[in-house]
């Protein structure tokens, strides 16, 4: 069936944003919105789309899970440093994150510089992961071509049955995106949405409203 996508749409009616409700550091408001997403049982509430840029200035994006947020050290995620995103971040340290929680009709856009976490911070998170996830991180050369799924499964089973200690590979670890721009978006009726944006200005954050 060839569906007419041009008429697929939903109106956003649930909530609104006032400048006055954003009185704290914008990262604190991100944490509040994320907590509301968790309380509302939204699937994968910590998932965000991470965009990076290649050497040829081509953007690419993929979903990652945010594992820690604070005002000083930003938004943490974990991945393979030799992956496509890892290679892009090596050359261009800027990235963006996008959370979309459809059930709350909310989006948050975040931009900033991405830095590697320390090996100690990466160890702490790696060691907290379930055994199978550790094995996958060790055996998967993320973003490389593989001949078949069977090869991956054989590597997985072989390490699993070896009972070797599962140590974090040096090429697997955390990054932190340190924000300099955070936009809170709330869907409104008839596409007349609310957008409140924070931009960093030295030690302060300027708050403004953007047209939808
Ligand atoms: C819900 C969800 C969460 C994901 N979380 C992560 C993550 O935290 N880290 C990661 O490396 N890949 C994660 N992935 C896989 C990535 O989207 C992506 O396929 C992978 O990182 C390779 O991307 P790259 O080739 O651009 O480096 C996740 C995918 C989904 C759909």
Give the CATH architecture.
Roll
CATH homologous superfamily caption? Electron Transport, Fmn-binding Protein, Chain A
- CATH first level: Mainly Beta
Mean pLDDT value: 98
Strand order of the largest sheet: 1-2-3-6-5-4
Task: Note poorly predicted spans.
Answer: none
Taking the alpha carbons of the first and last residues, their distance comes to: 34 Å
The whole-angstrom Rg is 20 Å
As a percent range, the share of helical residues equals: 25-40%
H/E element order: HEEEHEEHHHEEE
Q: How many distinct helices? A: 5
Approximate shape = globular
Bound molecules: flavin mononucleotide
Largest sheet: 6 strands, antiparallel, barrel
Strand content: 25-35%
Structural class: alpha+beta
Number of domains: 1
Count of distinct strands? 8
Structural notes for this entry:
The protein is of the alpha+beta class and about 210 residues long. The protein has a single domain (about 10-130, about 170-210), classed as Electron Transport, Fmn-binding Protein, Chain A (Pnp Oxidase, Chain A). It has helices at about 25-40, 85-90, 120-130, 130-140, 150-160, and strands at about 45-55, 60-70, 75-80, 95-100, 105-115, 170-185, 195-200, 205-210. The chain has a 6-stranded antiparallel barrel. Helix 4 crosses helix 5. The longest helix is centred in the N-terminal third of the chain and has 14 residues, at about 25-40. The two termini are about 35 Å apart. The mean pLDDT is about 100. The site of flavin mononucleotide has 15 residues, from strand 2, strand 3 and helix 2. It comes from Plebeiibacterium marinum. Its cofactor is FMN. This is Pyridoxine/pyridoxamine 5'-phosphate oxidase.
